[in-house]
C-alpha cells in the first residue's frame, strides 16, 4: 500500500516536473503538455487557459505604403511568422496604438496617425481576439476616426476596450467566456492623449488613468469574471526600466484584484514581475511589451515580443493562479531606404528563429541581453531556444 502511494506520488512529481521543464519550451507545448498531464490524473483537473499579449501596433506611413495592393492594403504577410504563437493560445490581445479609421479620412503616419482598416483584418487573421485602444494616439484624428475604427472592429468581430462608441457601449464590460469555463475581463487605460482634449461630454471616447476609477472597475470586473486583465498605456518613452509611478500603479491594480497587467507606451521592453495583491491574489505584470510592429529604427525599438501565460482556476474556490509565464522576443525586419518611403518588406520575426539571418548586428548577443533583461525580476520566465 505504501509502495503504491509512493509510486503515485513519484508519477505526479514527474508529471509536474516535465510540465515546467524550461528546456522543452515551444509555443505548442504550453497547451499540448498540460492536456496530457490532465488526462493522466484520476481526479478532475482545474480548468486552464492560455493568454498571449503583444505590444504596440504603430502603423507609420512606410508600413502602410509597403502593405498597399492594387485594390487596398494587405498586412497579413507581415504577421506570418508570429501568427502561429498567437493562434496557439486560448486568447490573444494586442495594443492597437493607431486608430484604423480607414482611407475615407486620408491615411496618416506620425505624429497624428490614421491607419487602414486592413490592419484589423490582419490582426484577426493572426489570432487576435481583442485590442486595447486607449493610448496617447486615440484622439489623433478625432472622434470620427474612432467611430470608423470601432465599426470595423465590430464588423470583423474583434472585441475592443479602452475607447468606446457611446456611454452605453462603455458601460458594457468586455468579458470573454472560454469553453474551458474561465471568464476573462479586459480593461484598458492611458496616461493621456498628447495634449488633445477629450471632447466635452464624450468621456467614453478614451479611458484616462484615474486611480479611483481603475480600482472600482477592476473590482467590478472581478465580480463579473474569473480573471481580470488590465492594459496600461504608461511609462516614459524609450526607458528600458519602469518608473516609480508605473510600479505604484501596478501594485494598486494588483491590490484591487487584477491577475495580469499589460504595460505599453515606452516602445522598448521593460521587465516582468509577479506581484502579490492585498487579497492574496497573484498578479503578473509586464511593464512594457515594446513595439510589435513599427518603423522605428533604433535596435531596442525594433524588439518586442509575445507574452504567454497560463491562467488556472481553482475548482473549489474559483481563485485564479497565473502560471508558466513565457516570452518570445520578436524583431521587426525591413529593408531600409529601399525607396522614398524609408523602408519596405516589413515583417515581424521571432528572434530565436532568425539568429542566422542577423536582422540586426550581433543578434545573438542582443537576444541574450533581452532574455536577461526580461527575466531579471522573474527567474522562472521561459524563452524559446534557437
Ligand atoms: Zn503610446
Describe the secondary structure blueprint for this structure.
Layout: H1 2-19, H2 29-40, E1 48-57, H3 61-67, E2 68-69, E3 72-73, H4 76-79, H5 83-87, E4 91-96, H6 118-125, E5 130-132, H7 142-155, E6 159-161, H8 167-171, E7 174-177, E8 183-190, H9 211-224, E9 227-233, H10 244-255, E10 260-264, E11 269-276, E12 282-289, E13 291-293, H11 299-302, E14 303-313, E15 320-335, E16 344-350, H12 363-375
Parallel strand pairs: 1-4, 1-13, 4-5, 5-6, 8-9, 9-10, 10-12
Antiparallel strand pairs: 1-14, 2-3, 7-8, 11-12, 14-15, 15-16
Helix pairs in contact: 1-2
The structure holds zinc ion (ZN).
Zinc ion is lined by residues 97, 135-136, 233, 265.
Give the CATH class.
Answer: Alpha Beta
Number of strands: 16
In CATH, the homologous superfamily goes by the name: Metallo-dependent phosphatases
Report the mean per-residue pLDDT as an integer. Answer: 90
Oligomer: single chain
CATH topology: Purple Acid Phosphatase, chain A, domain 2
**Structural class of the secondary structure composition?**
alpha/beta
How many structural units, i.e. domains?
1
What overall form do the CA principal axes indicate? globular
If classified by CATH, what would the architecture be? Answer: 4-Layer Sandwich
Number of helices: 12
The amount of helix comes to 25-40%
Rounded to the nearest angstrom, the radius of gyration is 21 Å
Low-confidence stretches: 1-38
Q: What ligands can be seen in this structure?
A: zinc ion
End-to-end Cα distance? 46 Å
